[in-house]
Amino acid sequence: MAKNPGRVGLAIKRISYQFQDTPLHRLMLGVVATAIDDLEKGNHPYASENQKRIGRQAKRYLLGEIIHAQLCGVDPEWIRDTLRTLGLLERA
After folding, report:
1. Is the Cβ–Cβ distance between 12 and 28 less than 8 Å?
2. What is the DSSP string of 24-79?
3. Count of CB atoms within 10 A of residue 13's CB?
4. For the chain: N or C, fewer Cβ within 10 A?
């Protein structure tokens, strides 16, 4: 995954501290980080229809159980709160 500037990079950095430094946890973090990146790309004003579709899927994933985080003991609601604080998800 490429380095992400701005809010996306900050969100991923904040969330990454909750995952242990093991191969499994790094993989699970990668899945969550990709969803965050896809969400932001899908919201870009010049996003293609495919990017918008992937962004909608990422939003659905991030508003759901976020099973990859749960498997590592990371609370999905905490992730959503972090994303809302940074303006990447709408407030409920």
Report:
1. no
2. HHHHHHHHHHHHHHHHHHHTSTT--HHHHHHHHHHHHHHHTT-HHHHTTT--HHHH
3. 11
4. C
88's tokens:
């990447």
Q: Which two tokens stand for residue 66?
A: 């976020």
Q: What is the pLDDT along the chain (92 residues), one digit of tens a residue?
A: 445 568 999 999 999 999 999 999 999 999 999 999 999 999 888 999 999 999 999 999 999 999 999 999 999 999 999 999 999 998 76
Q: 78 is written with which tokens?
A: 């905490």
What's at 30, amino acid-wise?
G
Round to whole Å and give the CA distance between 43 and 77: 21
Specify the pTM: 0.90
Q: Are 55 and 38 contacting, i.e. CB atoms less than 8 angstroms apart?
A: yes
What amino acid occupies position 17?
Answer: Y
